Amino acid sequence: MDRNNYLFTSESVSEGHPDKVSDKISDMVVDTYLSRDPYSRVACETLTTTNRVILAGETRGPKFDKEELVAKVRECIKEIGYDQKGFSWKNAQIESFLHEQSSDIAMGVDSKENKDDGAGDQGLMFGYACDETEELMPAPIHYSHKILRLMAEDRKKGLLNGIEPDNKSQVTMMYEKDKPTKVTSIVISTQHSKDLDQKKVKDLVVPYIKKSIPSNLLKDLSSDEIYINPTGQFIIGGPDGDTGLTGRKIIVDTYGGSAPHGGGAFSGKDPTKVDRSAAYAARYIAKNVVASGLTKKCLIQVAYAIGVSKPLSILVKLDDNDEEKIKKVMNIIQDNFDLSPRGIREMLKLNKPIYQTTSSYGHFGRKPTDKGEFSWEKTDKADLFK
């Protein structure tokens, strides 16, 4: 195949996947602190395993009774739907080892009379957008997320009985002339009750493929290329079947491999951490560039040094590599977007408890809400690039 005709695959995991359970709990801790003090500092890591949850990390801000956090962890587990022998919201052992943020880090990121807020760490972040879906996301990751999200919604409503919270999906698409033209295979592995055989599992799951993906993309998909629980069964799942850790699903969280990733995870971090906030800002810019009609694809890279407020570099790539166009986009970005850590937080209104909903089904390609969630998905700056 030439470079414009190829197969591309992306995967997603559900909120009941062990790593996503950890992400949700870590983001709950961020939201808990920000709801009490919007200038709190949080870096929370969560480990989940058989009937045990461990929190560790650094915070600065209000003081919380340990039992209050433990109760909120149980609420997270209950909301996901875990009340199993090996992992239950009722009796899981929960421990917290959160402690005060290092004064050395605080010195670097806090503003002073002669210094604006510095970045919370060094690193590079990417934002990406393309015109493959209405959400301006790559098609394979978008549809992988949608299958699992719709399954979770119906499971929680009692409309998908026998299917448990831990699920994975994978969508492979054919690209012709660099455009997605059809789905060539789908893999869904889903935890289920011991009362269901695999035929019943498949009967329950396959309709969600048809609900999630446009029929024109499925017209050539053979039933032999739909793999449901290819190992044979999936009864033991969640943190009981596999230990979960915060931040291990960074490609699921972003663009499914269609764009580079700087390497930093998002969940568990307050918005002073540019791993999170600058990745959101880069997506915001890239999405508005594509929404303007200027290009079919846009990739933005930014880089920071700890304690330094201005980005060390900004890179723009467009699908046609038109140098004059790229220069104009760069000028517009520099004139209209403050990419200092404080500028990003103010531009996107990130000092709010808006992060728990980001922990599953992707941080990008989502609808902005009245609460301020997914503000980086707005296309209110598209006219700047027209």
Please describe the topology of this protein:
Elements: E1 6-13, H1 18-36, E2 41-49, E3 52-60, H2 66-80, E4 83-84, E5 87-88, E6 93-100, H3 103-109, E7 123-130, H4 139-157, E8 163-176, E9 179-192, H5 198-212, H6 215-218, E10 226-228, H7 238-241, E11 244-245, H8 250-253, H9 274-291, E12 297-304, E13 313-318, H10 323-336, H11 341-348
Parallel strand pairs: 3-6, 9-10
Antiparallel strand pairs: 1-8, 2-3, 2-11, 4-5, 7-12, 8-9, 12-13
Helix pairs in contact: 1-2, 4-5, 9-11
Short précis:
By secondary structure, the chain is of the alpha+beta class.
What would you note in describing this structure?
The structure is a single chain. This protein is α+β, with helices and mostly antiparallel strands and 386 residues long. It is built from 11 helices and 13 strands. The chain has helices at residues 18-36, 66-80, 103-109, 139-157, 198-212, 215-218, 238-241, 250-253, 274-291, 323-336, 341-348, and strands at 6-13, 41-49, 52-60, 83-84, 87-88, 93-100, 123-130, 163-176, 179-192, 226-228, 244-245, 297-304, 313-318. Strands 1-8-9-10 form a 4-stranded mixed β-sheet. Strands 6-3-2-11 form a 4-stranded mixed β-sheet. Strands 7-12-13 form a 3-stranded antiparallel β-sheet. Strand 2 and strand 3 form a beta hairpin. The longest helix has 19 residues, at 18-36. The mean pLDDT is 94.
